[in-house]
Structures are given as structure tokens and as C-alpha cells.
Write a structure and sequence with these properties.
The protein is mostly helical. It has twelve helices and ten strands. The chain has one domain (6-328): Glycosyltransferase. 52% of the residues lie in helices and 7% in strands. The protein has a three-stranded antiparallel sheet. Strands 8-9-10 form a three-stranded antiparallel sheet. The chain is globular, with a radius of gyration of 18 Å.
């Protein structure tokens, strides 16, 4: 098998296209729920395959379903919201997706078309930043803000703010407010850990809290390598992938793919490629990736093949094999 060929991932691309609805929305599976973050992750997978029209339909769905405050609801079924919660990292991720689209297609006209939606989304996210620099994880109708912050979500927001800053520069817009928000957020994650997981148990047992600050450029190079080495044995199951939760015997394809991106960012290329190679064993006979594998039971769980998992694998493969000009999305700093 030639893992370095985009053709190897064709089934994943075709699957995302099959699941995408006529209105552009990309749920997890046919007829299942959609959340804005995973919708964008799947759309980026389509962009890597050169599916420009379908990718743009996905972003236009976001434009058409954006709320007046610039956010989106956290879950939809058949494009109808099933919750009143609005998560900040979900809303911010449009910036990462649009910058990825621009890196690949260099379409300034489409970027300009989406600029009002992007600006409104970033306004919502920054409005949720506290005076301590952290960003509330969500708001909910009738509850205003939900008073806590997440390391993983905030790291993702940081990367999205960076991508928004890069887009604003193209159009000669001021980036001062966005860059100031980024600096405060980065300082908060690095130096004020007490601002995170204030009202629930620490999420440090989740691998995403381990690698997301590395993936999104929160830590410098030395701290990034130190952190990866510190918890490698906690989360990596050699030959199988990255665990989602430290104490659970369950490797997951999407988390493993994101870790690949983090490793590429800090120059651990052989480790990244070895990790990506290990994930292909978790493809079914239809060449689609299961969510994860419970290795003591020799069972796939849950029994689903999400579009966002396919998108994450495509992003990881692009980062290693450089299929597109978007391959450096997470490995470079753009602001």
C-alpha cells in the first residue's frame, strides 16, 4: 500500500461527499448529528482532495446558519438545532477552515464573501474572553455564559484567532484586537492553569489536553518537546495509536491523527509517520476508518465511521506527504 498517495485516501473523500447533504452540511454519518467543528474538519478533508465546490458549500452552510451574535449552536440534526448551547471553539474554527481553503485554492473572492461571517464569529469568541485571558467554553440561551474554560478548546481557539489574523491582513483590516486576544489567551494557558477546569474534574487525563497546546502553538519548541516526551508512555500504545483517555484501553483514530499534526509541527517527522501508518489497520473492508479500537476486547467502538475522523486522517496525511499547499496549516505560525 502506498500511504503517500492521495489515491489511498479516496474512499475517505468519497465517504464525506456521500454524507454531505444538499444544503452543504456534513453530519457525522448519514442522518446523524452535525456539530460545527467536525463539519469544518470534514470540509477540510474535501479541500485536500481538491473538491472546491463541495468545500465552499460547507462554509456557505455555516454562513446561512450563523446566529446573530456570530456563533452557531453546538449540535444540529438535518440542519435544525437540537441544543441552545453555543461553544466558543466550535464558532472560532471557521477561521482555521477558511484559511486552509485559501492556502489550497488561493481564492480571495470566496474569502471576501465569507468575511462577514468570519468577523462576526471572531467577535463572539473574543466577547467571551475573561479579564484573566481565558475564554469561556460556551454560552447557552437562558444561562448567559457557562463559567469555565478548557485547555483543548482554548488551544483550538488560539489557532483559529491566528488564522483570522492572517485573513484580516489580506484585506488590510486591523489585527490589533485579535492579536491582543491571542497574547492574553496564550499567557493564560501557559501561566494560569487554575483558570481551567474550575468547576469539573481536570481533563488532563484526556490526550487532547496533552497535545493540543503543542498542535496549536501555545508552547514554544522546547516546552512542546518536553511535554510530548513527558506523557508519551501515558497515551501511546505502540503499534496501535494514541489513547483518548489515559486509563482507558481505547485508541482513537482522530486523536491519533491530530497528534500526528502536533508531531509534524515540532519536527518529530519519523514518529509522526510511524503513528499515521499504524492507523490504517483500523480501516474496515470499505476502507473507512472506525472511531476507535478497544484492544483488550479486540473490538471497534463505537460502531461508527465519522466524517470528521476521515477529515482528520486526510489532514494528517497531507501534513506528512504534502499533497496540497495547505499541508503547513498547523505546522506554521501565520499571524
Amino acid at each position: 500500500m502506498d500511504y503517500s498517495s492521495l489515491e489511498f485516501y479516496k474512499s475517505s473523500v468519497d465517504y464525506i461527499l456521500d454524507v454531505q447533504n444538499n444544503d452543504g452540511s456534513i453530519p457525522w454519518e448519514i442522518g446523524k448529528k452535525l456539530d460545527p467543528w467536525d463539519h469544518i474538519e470534514a470540509a477540510m478533508g474535501l479541500a485536500i482532495a481538491g473538491k472546491k465546490d463541495e468545500t465552499e458549500r460547507a462554509y456557505k452552510w455555516l454562513r446561512d446558519n450563523q446566529l446573530t451574535d456570530g456563533s452557531w449552536y453546538s449540535e444540529y440534526i438535518k440542519s435544525e438545532p437540537t441544543t441552545k448551547r453555543r461553544e466558543t471553539n466550535f464558532s472560532a474554527y471557521i477561521a482555521t477552515g477558511l484559511w486552509h481553503h485559501y492556502l489550497i485554492f488561493q481564492d480571495e473572492e470566496f474569502l471576501n464573501e465569507m468575511l462577514p461571517s468570519l468577523t462576526n464569529a471572531i467577535d463572539f469568541v473574543i466577547s467571551m474572553q475573561t479579564e484573566k485571558g481565558d475564554i469561556y467554553w460556551a454560552a447557552e440561551d437562558g444561562k448567559e455564559i457557562l463559567d469555565d474554560s478548557l485547555i483543548t478548546g482554548s488551544s483550538s481557539i488560539y489557532k483559529s484567532l491566528e488564522c483570522a489574523s492572517a485573513i484580516f491582513k489580506i484585506f488590510g483590516m486591523s489585527t490589533e484586537r485579535v492579536n491582543f486576544s491571542m497574547a492574553r489567551l496564550k499567557e493564560s494557558i501557559n501561566n494560569n492553569p487554575e483558570r481551567y477546569d474550575r468547576s469539573w474534574d481536570s481533563k488532563s487525563r484526556y490526550s487532547m489536553d496533552w497535545y493540543y497546546p503543542v498542535l496549536c502553538g501555545i508552547y514554544d519548541q522546547d516546552k512542546s518537546i518536553q511535554q510530548i516526551e513527558l506523557k508519551w508512555s501515558d497515551f501511546i500504545v505502540e503499534g496501535k495509536g494514541c489513547k483518548c483517555v489515559k486509563e482507558e484501553p481505547w485508541v482513537t483514530v482522530a486523536e491519533s491523527s491530530e497528534l500526528v499534526l502536533a508531531l509534524v509541527r515540532i519536527g518529530l517527522l519519523s514518529e509522526a509517520e510511524e503513528l499515521l501508518d499504524s492507523l490504517h489497520q483500523w480501516r474496515d473492508n470499505d476502507e473507512l476508518y472506525w472511531t476507535g479500537y478497544v484492544y483488550p476486547d479486540d473490538k471497534f467502538w463505537p460502531i461508527e465511521k465519522p466524517t470528521w475522523t476521515a477529515g482528520a486522517v486526510l489532514l494528517a496525511a497531507d501534513a506528512i506527504y504534502n499533497f496540497t499547499p495547505g499541508s503547513e496549516l498547523f505546522s506554521k505560525t501565520w499571524a
